[in-house]
Design a protein that fits this description.
Number of helices: 13
CATH topology of the largest domain: Nucleotidyltransferase, domain 5
CATH superfamily of the largest domain: ATPase, nucleotide binding domain
Oligomer: single chain
Radius of gyration: 20 Å
Shape: globular
Mean pLDDT: 93
Number of strands: 15
Order of helices and strands: EEEHHEEHEHHEEEHHHHHEHEHEHEEE
Distance between the termini: 30 Å
Structural class: alpha/beta
Length: 376
């Protein structure tokens, strides 16, 4: 079976806590033959709120905690629904799960989602737990998209910088001589989303409209950029809440508009300060942040190179990470590396992911849940 092209469906629920993306990709784990249908299911408000609460509680919980199990069950329901919508003819499922804790310095990373339910429901192998092997080997466990970015970008001029802005922001630098370097740059939409939710009741700053009406407080921006994370060399990675205390201190007396403008500038400045070895010829942006006009305007001021959404290269910015975990599922199945010294700091190219197949005795209590879904 090794080396065959397989049709994989990857599923990603990112740190923005907005929902589950699924997408299929046909690949042998090295080359990409085709990409196809995608689907997004947005979390219902109650599930989103419970996931956000889990981020705060995760350091004090274990996998058997009743609250964790309940949220995991409901999360898995959404995964089952989105897979059922596009999964016909699939050879393997890649389930990233929802990250609720990421602490590589403590050799710990935690994603929830019940791969066994998927394997039994659909009688297919499921690749999951993509990060643990890298973290256990001393790597950062993130980001994991660089090898997929490299596969997509083989024909594009280099140096090339790919920026992903989810709850956390990260970069992939692809050099002219084949270098692949990556790191989390700092906050993405996460602190901004939390701030906007507290001050306006909205889940995010749509199109960057709120930030556009505010003034960047330079003193607060410099306070945020003094965080010790920015002095660390790459590769490096973050938890969704790594900046929570510093953001709370810097934002405590700002109004909604100025706070949104300042946090938007924080995201942009952190990306612009990322340690890359050469100026890129082009900057391609994926993730929800590419829809924030204030972020994109800031990035265009920060870089001399053209800054464009990844659609300018013919990629689907909404499904890129889901496609990635379909690609990594096939790499996991074939024992190929998921991470490199230049992407996570691991000592050598590191295989990862676990493969779970149908187990006849596995309890399968999950029924398809309700939610809003869209397909393309």
């Amino acid at each position: 079976m090794d080396g065959q092209f397989l049709r994989a469906v990857g599923m990603m629920s990112g740190t923005s806590l907005d929902g589950v993306d699924a997408a299929w990709v046909e690949t042998d784990g090295i080359n990409i033959a085709a990409t196809g249908m995608t689907v997004t299911m947005y979390y219902e408000d109650a599930l989103r709120a419970d996931l956000r609460r889990l981020l705060d509680l995760a350091p004090t919980l274990n996998a058997d905690d009743p609250f964790v199990k309940d949220v995991e069950r409901r999360l898995t329901e959404d995964h089952c629904v989105v897979f059922a919508m596009i999964g016909q003819g699939t050879d393997i499922i890649g389930m990233h799960g929802q990250t609720i804790l990421h602490a590589p310095a403590q050799r710990r990373t935690w994603q929830i989602g019940d791969a066994g339910i998927l394997a039994n429901r659909f009688n297919l192998p499921v690749a999951y737990d993509f990060r643990s092997a890298d973290v256990e080997a001393g790597g950062q466990g993130a980001p994991l998209a660089p090898l997929y970015h490299e596969a997509l970008a083989r024909s594009l001029p280099k140096p090339l910088l790919i920026v992903n802005i989810g709850g956390v922001a990260n970069i992939t630098f692809l050099g002219a001589d084949g270098e692949i370097l990556a790191c989390d740059t700092g906050p993405g939409n996460g602190p901004l989303d939390d701030f906007v939710r507290r001050h306006t009741g909205q889940n995010y700053d749509q199109d960057g409209a709120l930030a556009a009406t505010g003034t960047v407080r330079q003193d607060r921006l410099e306070q945020l950029l003094a965080h010790p994370y920015f002095a660390l060399p790459a590769p490096k990675s973050l938890d969704r809440l790594s900046f929570s205390s510093s953001v709370a201190a810097a934002m405590q007396d700002l109004n909604a508009a100025d706070g949104a403008a300042t946090l938007t500038a924080f995201t942009v400045a952190a990306i612009a300060r990322a340690p890359i070895p050469a100026a890129p010829l082009r900057v391609l942006v994926c993730g929800g942040g590419r829809r924030n006009n204030a972020i994109m305007a800031g990035l265009r001021q920060a870089f001399a190179a053209p800054v464009e959404p990844v659609e300018a290269a013919g990629w689907d910015g909404d499904s890129l990470e889901a496609q990635c975990f379909g690609y990594l599922a096939v790499r996991s199945l074939y024992g190929l590396p998921l991470s490199l010294p230049g992407t996570t700091g691991v000592a050598q190219p590191m295989p990862g992911g676990r493969i779970l197949r149908k187990v006849a005795s596995y309890a399968n209590p999950v029924m398809p849940g309700e939610g809003r879904a869209s397909t393309t």
